[in-house]
Every structure is written in C-alpha cells, then in structure tokens.
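Deviation from plan, reported transparently: NAP complex.
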Amino acid sequence: MLNPLDLNGRTVLVTGASSGIGREVAILLSQLNARVVLTGRNEQRLEETRASLTGEGHRAIVFDLSQTDDIPKWIQTLVSETGPLYGIVHAAGKQSAMPIRFANEKRVDDLVRTNLYSAIMLARGFAQKGCHTAEGGSVVFVSSVMAFTGKPAISVYGATKGALTAFVKSLAVELAPERVRVNCLAPGFVQTEMLDQLRDLLTEEQMQALEAAHPLGFGTPRDVAHAAAFLLADTGRWITGSTLVLDGGYSAQ
Ligand SMILES: NC(=O)c1ccc[n+]([C@@H]2O[C@H](COP(=O)([O-])OP(=O)(O)OC[C@H]3O[C@@H](n4cnc5c(N)ncnc54)[C@H](OP(=O)(O)O)[C@@H]3O)[C@@H](O)[C@H]2O)c1
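Because the crystal trials were delayed, the predicted structure below was used instead.
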C-alpha cells in the first residue's frame, strides 16, 4: 500500500530521545520503518525509549550536545558504525526562565550552546562527506512558537529558537545542490517535562490561562512527531528552509 511517510531503509538520528518530543519522534519514526539512532545524556531513559521502538537495529548512544566542537567527529564515528544518515531530528533543547535582569554570560551561553550551537554543529556534521546518504537527506530542528511571540522571562530562549528559523534559510540554499533539506518546527506549548517545569513556576490560574490561549489546547508530543515525520519523509521533498508552526492556534490570535 502507498505510504509517502514510509522511511524504510533510512537511518535517522533523533536527539532529545530520552524524553518528551524526541522520545515520541523516535517511536513514530520506528513505526514508519526507520532505523533510529537515539541520543541524550541519560542512558537509562534512552534505553526506555529504545524498548518502546518498533522494529530492529535501533541504537542508543549517550552524548552531551553541549560539547559542540566534538559533534562533527562524533557523527563521523557514528556513521562509520551505522552507515550514512538519511536525517536528523534535533529535539534536544533546554528552556530556562530568565528575566533579563538575571541574564549573565554563563546562563546565556548555556542556553545558546544547547539550543543553537548544537544545531549548527549537527548540521555541519551531517553535511560532511559520507555522513548523509547519496540521495540527500532531511534535517528537522525543533524551534518554538517563542521565536515569533513573546512571554516574560523567556526572551533568551526565544532568541535561541528564533535564530534556528533564520539558520535554516541560508543553510537550505547552501545544501540544496546535495538535495539536503533543512527545516524547523515551531510548536506551541506541548505536554512534556519542559511544560511541567513551567507548571512549577506558574499558579494554577496562570496555567489555565496559558492553555486557554491555545484554541485547540496544549499539544502532545505525538502532534509534534507527526509534523517531524511529514518534513522528514518524502511528503516534505519540496520543502526546505521553512518553519512549520504547530501551536493549536496560539499565534493565530
Ligand atoms: N514542551 C514544549 O512546550 C515545547 C514547546 C516548543 C518547543 N519545544 C522544544 O522541543 C524540544 C524538546 O522539548 P521537550 O518538551 O521534549 O523537553 P524535555 O522533555 O525536557 O526533553 C529535553 C530533551 O533534551 C535533551 N537534552 C537537553 N540538554 C541536552 C544536552 N546538553 N545534550 C544532549 N541532550 C540534551 C534531554 O536529554 P537528557 O536529559 O537525557 O540529556 C531531553 O531528552 C526542545 O528543543 C524544546 O525547546 C518544547
């Protein structure tokens, strides 16, 4: 039966696979027949994800993406074991409430390193000779609706996510000759541990107001996984340099 989302014979690296969105992306991609390489820092949680995958041949590799200079070499080593990658879904990321009066170089650097530098170096790694398949490939970065809208105390986080949406534009043009596509997802608030951290900072009323600001309610990791699969697979073959907003109508108002 025709399934344009089928990823059979393709290997995809999923970052942030130990939790939330990345974990669900990995599960869905395995259900679409991809071979998945999971990465994160927490080995036990990565193994939990691996145990939830469909099919054979998946791997879990512990790696701290804040070691940004090491990423291209790490991808080369990985590819020497798995063969060239078809794609990357970069879901690893960090959110930290930071009123601007509390911003300092260390805190800002921590967010920029985890959310932006990691993406840049993953793209560099993927672009290396032999690291992506001869047919080309597809890279999906998880940005955020905070790239386009505002909330107090998340300006620095929003800046890292906005930078990703700018990053994919020129990168898409640069890598198009090799048929490597690069895109972003910009989710609204999604029910993961990241949202639970926010829950700890807000009152019950503020949380209800935040959910009400999403006409379709909060998203689920599966909502984001569907969009990631769409951009990754042949359904997205004419899409590059784009950011797909999926936010239950949050930014439509
Ligand atoms: N949840 C939302 O409302 C929402 C909305 C818009 C965008 N996003 C974005 O979606 C992505 C996934 O978020 P989530 O909600 O799924 O969060 P989450 O459940 O907190 O998961 C974050 C993931 O990032 C990984 N990670 C963090 N720092 C890392 C590092 N230095 N090296 C390697 N892995 C690292 C964590 O793995 P380890 O702990 O194992 O290292 C974990 O798997 C993030 O980029 C986030 O900014 C989330």
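The mean pLDDT is 97. We consider this an acceptable substitute for the interim report.
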